[in-house]
């Protein structure tokens, strides 16, 4: 039986022997757990395991289920009894389009994954090497020793440029990547506000912030239309993701429609830039905060390259650099919360989950859990050495998720993050300037509030 054949039964009776998950503590009258979740979402999610492996949360009148152990997050992500839905996805769909891979389910999702997957396969990544190298070195060359670097803008720029140039190839991308960057940064800021504080009609008022958001959203969609139209007009069919999308067929063997092509490009560029940009910011913060690891990265890179600029082919030899990236992602995962919806009456860990229920879990909480990690809050890249990694429970470190919704871009992302970290740590040491604020800003992703660094030449 497939997920699509299962009809949600909202009035289903609980299967015998299954328990109702306990209600989490910390709720307040009327708002329930909405209040602590809004006030300090990371601390709230991190405490939930104290109340049970699966717990109920009251968000106003609504009951939401939270999963708190690595094993159960794996079971949830791998089970066909849950699909992508819920308030997070619905608000994304409203703004970014309904036909992209990130929000589709069932046969449409499987077909779309088949179309995009080849562009992200391990053996496809080396073709992106020259662009990744060029962008990583351009970043270090743009920065001047002693001058303050605005890490938010710079990280967004390099992430968008790499995704756009590698996946949607074309000379025109150079100028467009800058526009995409500006549009995406504004759109993500506004989207998070709309999700957390759903003030509906107020966002339609002609206020400066709303106008700026609407302009950025319109420009994002316009840019995507321009990219698609220019590729078509060029008559070129390079072996890239955009060609794959333009040649894709639907379930009946017919070409996919214009709206789906558009929504697919949006659905790949938007998660692709925000997540990588946030992770680069945290990597920069980690290099500044842990100079001993930055020095170790530099030593490793020099021992591999013998002093020449680091290249894409060096990446697989950079073990410590890779471990620094993984450890930064463990403590500051870009994607800090994920949701699913039960397709049918089902169970998790012996607890009853009714059809239609929304389930949340937090990779941030899972990856910092003291039950999974020794000295859980310590930045310790060596915990990923082969002799120590075996002590870490399965699914306790899944920043790209697992199962059929696993990020297609795990290899693509790890390659560029390792290369960028190597290029940065070889050229500079970093110091935070006094106006810098590296506290965590919770949005659609986690990133530092306003990271400002001064590069110091090595
Ligand atoms: C999905 C994380 C980079 C494209 C996901 C998911 C996670 C994730 C956790 C699964 C969501 C879920 O289970 O509900 C990350 C992280 C990244 C990263 C941590 C970098 C540090 C990228 C990049 C791209 C990308 C660079 C594209 C250029 C996508 C797409 C999906 C996705 C299209 C939806 C897949 C589906 O639903 O089938 N990502 N991602 N991601 N990611 Fe990434």
Automatic annotation (TrEMBL):
* Compositional bias segments (type: Low complexity): 12-21
Top-level taxon: Bacteria
Task: Name the UniProt key words of this record, in alphabetical order.
Answer: Heme, Iron, Metal-binding, Monooxygenase, Oxidoreductase
Keyword field contains Metal-binding: yes
InterPro entries in the record: Cyt_P450 (IPR001128), Cyt_P450_E_grp-I (IPR002401), Cyt_P450_sf (IPR036396), Cytochrome_P450_Monoox (IPR050196)
Give the cofactors, semicolon-separated.
heme
Q: Which residues bind heme?
A: 407
MF (Gene Ontology): heme binding; iron ion binding; monooxygenase activity; oxidoreductase activity, acting on paired donors, with incorporation or reduction of molecular oxygen
Where in this protein does the record put region Disordered?
1-21
Q: Which Pfam families match?
A: p450
Protein family according to the UniProt entry: Belongs to the cytochrome P450 family.
Query: What protein does this entry describe?
Result: Cytochrome P450
């Amino acid at each position: 039986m497939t997920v699509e054949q299962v009809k949600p039964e909202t009035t289903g009776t609980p299967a015998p022997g299954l328990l109702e998950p306990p209600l989490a503590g910390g709720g307040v009258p009327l708002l329930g757990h909405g209040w602590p979740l809004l006030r300090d979402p990371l601390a709230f999610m991190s405490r939930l395991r104290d109340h049970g492996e699966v717990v109920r949360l009251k968000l106003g009148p609504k009951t939401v289920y939270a999963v708190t152990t690595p094993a159960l997050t794996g079971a949830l992500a791998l089970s066909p009894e849950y699909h992508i839905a819920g308030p997070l996805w619905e608000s994304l769909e409203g703004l970014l389009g309904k036909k992209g891979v990130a929000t589709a389910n069932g046969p449409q999702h499987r077909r779309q994954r088949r179309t995009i997957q080849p562009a992200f396969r391990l053996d496809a990544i080396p073709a992106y090497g020259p662009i990744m190298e060029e962008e990583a070195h351009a970043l270090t060359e743009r920065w001047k020793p002693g001058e303050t670097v605005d890490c938010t803008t710079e990280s967004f720029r390099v992430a968008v440029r790499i995704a756009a140039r590698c996946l949607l190839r074309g000379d025109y991308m150079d100028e467009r990547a800058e526009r995409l960057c500006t549009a995406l940064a504004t759109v993500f800021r506004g989207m998070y506000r709309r999700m957390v504080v759903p003030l509906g009609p107020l966002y339609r008022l002609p206020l400066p912030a709303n106008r700026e958001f609407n302009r950025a959203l319109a420009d994002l969609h316009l840019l995507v239309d321009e990219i698609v139209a220019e590729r078509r007009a060029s008559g070129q069919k390079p072996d890239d993701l955009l060609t794959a999308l333009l040649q894709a067929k639907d379930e009946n063997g017919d070409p996919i429609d214009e709206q789906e092509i558009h929504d697919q490009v949006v659905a790949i560029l938007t998660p692709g830039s925000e997540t990588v940009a946030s992770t680069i910011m945290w990597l920069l913060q980690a290099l500044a905060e842990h100079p001993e690891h930055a020095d170790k990265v530099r030593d490793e890179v020099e021992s591999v390259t013998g002093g020449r600029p680091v290249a894409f082919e060096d990446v697989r030899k950079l073990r410590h650099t890779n471990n620094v990236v993984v450890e930064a992602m463990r403590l500051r995962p870009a994607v800090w919360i994920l949701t699913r919806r039960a397709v049918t009456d089902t169970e998790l860990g012996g607890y009853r989950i009714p059809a239609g229920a929304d389930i949340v879990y937090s990779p941030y909480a899972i990856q910092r859990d003291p039950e999974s990690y020794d000295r859980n809050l310590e930045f310790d890249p060596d915990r990923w050495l082969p002799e120590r990694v075996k002590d870490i429970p399965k699914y306790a470190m899944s920043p790209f998720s697992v199962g059929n919704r696993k990020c297609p871009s795990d290899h693509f992302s790890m390659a560029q993050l390792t290369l960028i970290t190597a290029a940065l740590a070889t050229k500079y040491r970093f110091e935070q300037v006094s106006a810098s604020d590296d506290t965590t800003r919770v949005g659609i992703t986690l990133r530092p509030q306003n990271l400002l660094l001064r590069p110091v030449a090595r």
